[in-house]
Batch of 3 targets.
Target 1
Amino acid sequence: MRLRSFWFLGLIAVPAAMILFWMGASDLNFFAKPNQIAVIEIRGLIDDAQETQKALKKYREDDNVKAILVRIESPGGGIGPSQEIVRELRRTSKEKPVVASLGGIAASGGYYIASAANRIIANPGTITGSIGVILSFPNLKELFDKVGYYTNVIKSGPFKDVGNPGREMTPEERALLQETIDEAYGQFVKDVALGRNLPEEKVRQIADGRIILGETAQKLGLVDALGNFQDAVDAAASLGKIEGKPEVIYHKKKKRSLLDYLLGSEAGESLSYFLNGSANFLRYQSPFFP
């Protein structure tokens, strides 16, 4: 009886061990061929850079990956997260080629990220550009007056409640915020000029917040070529010196939240962005997605 039990457990344990080994080897890219192009997708509002940074580092250190393709479908987002991704892209592009593929919209922070790639490919109708910084506060004073809603504010300094929706903004507050906007705008222009190898003055001429379609962006030097996702894959293969057909692998996204399932991915991300009270109130963001 004991012998039968031993053989029965063995019949179960051996296949289970093989399955676990296969799964682990798959995660470690054990059976991969050294001709891979890794695709990292950036979708929706840019309010968190951690996952993208980890993916870039992972594929940068993977010898099987010869090039990285960043697929962007984003109207922009927080300045801090956008800058973190750009920094990691620059670090990566020094070791292996990075191609940015712009989808339907890659504006403001979306384009800012793309500018750090070695090569940018957009569709002729891609909504891009929108180089600038935006900061908005609601003014609900008249509404509050009508309903009799008032707030008592106790603060440590004159600017601590800047943007209070229950009152008018003071000239001093507006001047301070404009100074902050100008500083962030200067960083945007400087980084785009650096990434695209363009004079800062030339970038400033079109960095007035205007949206630009892909075809015009190419003429202005903001985009290298016009094409779709497959064209971007071909460009990545060429820059990565891949012989034959490349193996395209996709970065596994984090699990979607319940809010994403209920409202849809982008809607969930957008609502979460505001409900979480994100500190990224200064945004590289297109007016197409207020």
Target 2
Amino acid sequence: MSQTAPSLSRLPTFGEDGAIHVVVETPKGSSNKYAFSDAFGAFLLKTVLPEGMSFPYDFGMIPSTKGADGDPLDVLLLLDAPAFPGCVMEARLVGVIEAEQREGEGTWERNDRLIGVAVNARTHAHIETLSDLRPGMLDEVEAFFGHYNRLAGKDFKVLRRGGAEAALAIARQGADALAQAED
């Protein structure tokens, strides 16, 4: 009897030792923004960034979660070298950029960016908290997302930064939100 593998967006949220699963959608250095589509079972090209602009780190989703925007939770992943779209790995959350965004004159909605370190990372293995990041890194990441959203006709507003506990709470809420939506 054959079993169908679960969709990438439906993999378990949590892995070993409290780590989260991350599905990379857009690799570090890519000027193409990809997103996984359940309808197609594949990665779709969402947008192309302007010449000279690229994603500063791997960017993806936490499977089996639902954020306030209705999509799986976003995660910025610190890893030694870029991964590839569809790569699944475990990461430990070290913090979150809590943010809101809106399209045009629409309403503001939460769209947090969780920050994780790949469990197998070497270069970033020492990072346990946001304070372990190099100075200015979070400012650069926030500026990237602000500029990225402006180019897409959206506003992006950082509300605050939170630590690993806040990020883990958001991941748990996202898993609960998806489970409730499916009941």
Target 3
Amino acid sequence: MPQRLGPRPSTTPTNPHTQLDQQPSDDRPRQHLIGQLAHLPGVVWAGSLISVPGARALTLPEGPVQGPPDAFMIGTEFAHLHPAPDHSLHLVLPPAAAEAAIDAGWAEQHPIARLGIISPGAVMVYAPRDAHEADIAADLVRASYAYATGSELPRSTENLIGH
């Protein structure tokens, strides 16, 4: 996984877990990210059940879920994008992928996950500042989707997290 450039952004130490600086100067990186995720098979976009008002959640339809229970934050919600001015996102990754994303500077473990209350793979992925960073964030969301659906990681994601 490529190293994220620059220092990590400042974040709040507890809920709501929010990114405080290093947001993009406009909405283009976020729109680029959403465009890449818009057609994930079977994903239902909805309001988040656990995030701040205005957060957009990626969920799976109600019914049998293929991935392990630890692949979800609540119900079938495996990721959500925070609204402006934050622009970061939370998602759940397999433990090795979460560790790789954290080590490369793209993410940090959710403070509630550190307490053992939610999945240990729950991370904040920092707000993409440009299209390149949005591509990496999209790959991380695709890894979260693969974990949630119990499917194999996409080849680009396997390369990204070193598996």
